[in-house]
Specification:
Rossmann fold; 2 domains; 6-stranded parallel beta sheet; 6-stranded antiparallel beta sheet; 14 strands; about 30% helix
């Protein structure tokens, strides 16, 4: 998959795609439906996605709490799995944010990327001040020679599929409800970093990853499916993970610590993708390390039972 970050510097072979436009945070079922429409709208054209980095919400409110379901790298990996050939991940900056709707259609869609067709959601807005509507986009398409398809909002279980609804499910400790809207387990991807190695002392060595910049799911212990994406231990594993601040050991920044069942080896520096399956319990502060170990034994037994039934 080719990634293009500047619409003003595009190779000829990267032009002429049929694209889905949006932020695609989570790449949920609604996003996948929009991508399928782009694929079918112009079958002879390369399939593309047009998105922005940083997320416009991060750009306009950098001090707001973290809300993203996935990093840009995780999003790109998921889009590539869906068959996206060109990811137009445009740098969202003052110049891009200042384009009027007509300038966006002219400079980005027509002249910059040379798109043949665009697909957007029914609530899509674009251009300075989010002033452009889907009706404007359709009019610009007729004027400038690119096709426009407006995708209806998708529902599942009587609820509109949205990144907001997925965040709410994760905040409530309902990862299976989030998965129903995502079409896949919610995953936290990242590189394994060094920790305090307390888990190794307790008999539960964990792979530690940062969740900085991501929407934090409900803090606590989860049954998880783990993919080791690279390195000598590449493969799929079952496990249990704790997301939180480790109250037994003072004040800490929230992270995710994952114990892989039936695994031995060094994962430092490897990239992991941890899929949340079930919420087991909240974080607790125990009276002793022995009590913590007893609870961890019980957590892993329960997680094994849950994961063996998948």
């Amino acid at each position: 998959m080719r990634i293009v970050r500047d619409y003003q510097y595009v190779r000829p072979e990267d032009r002429g795609a049929s694209v889905a436009i949006g932020n695609f945070d989570g790449v949920h079922l609604g996003h996948q439906a929009v991508i399928d429409l782009a694929r079918n709208a112009a079958p002879a054209a390369p399939l593309g996605v047009l998105t922005f980095e940083p997320h416009p919400r991060e750009y306009f409110a950098p001090e707001a709490p973290a809300f993203r379901l996935m990093s840009a790298e995780a999003r790109a990996a998921r889009l590539e799995k869906l068959g996206v050939e060109h990811l137009y991940q445009l740098n969202f900056n003052t110049a891009l944010a200042s384009l009027t709707p007509h300038e966006f259609a002219t400079n980005v869609i027509r002249d910059g990327l040379g798109l043949v067709h665009v697909v957007v959601g029914a609530d899509f807005c674009f251009g300075k001040g989010r002033a452009g509507t889907v009706a404007d986009l359709q009019a610009f398409g007729e004027e400038m020679g690119f096709g426009v398809t407006v995708a209806e909002l998708l529902e599942t279980g009587g609820q509109e599929v949205s990144s907001t609804a997925i965040r709410e499910a994760l905040s409530a400790g309902r990862p299976r409800d989030a998965a129903l809207q995502l079409g896949h387990w919610h995953r936290i991807d990242g590189q394994v970093i060094g920790g305090e190695q307390r888990g190794r002392v307790l008999g539960y060595p964990t792979a530690n990853m940062s969740i900085d910049g991501l929407h934090p799911p409900k803090l606590g212990v989860y049954a998880v499916l783990v993919e080791v994406r690279d390195g000598p231990h590449k493969g799929s594993y079952h496990g249990a993970a704790s997301i939180g601040v480790r109250p037994m050991f003072g004040e800490n920044t929230a992270n995710i610590e994952t114990f892989l069942f039936d695994f031995t080896g060094d994962l430092y520096g490897a990239t992991l993708s941890v899929g949340l399956v079930d919420y087991l319990r909240p974080e607790e502060k125990f009276d002793s390390l022995d009590a913590l170990i007893v609870q961890m034994d019980a957590d892993c037994t329960r997680a094994r039972e849950i994961l063996s039934a998948l």
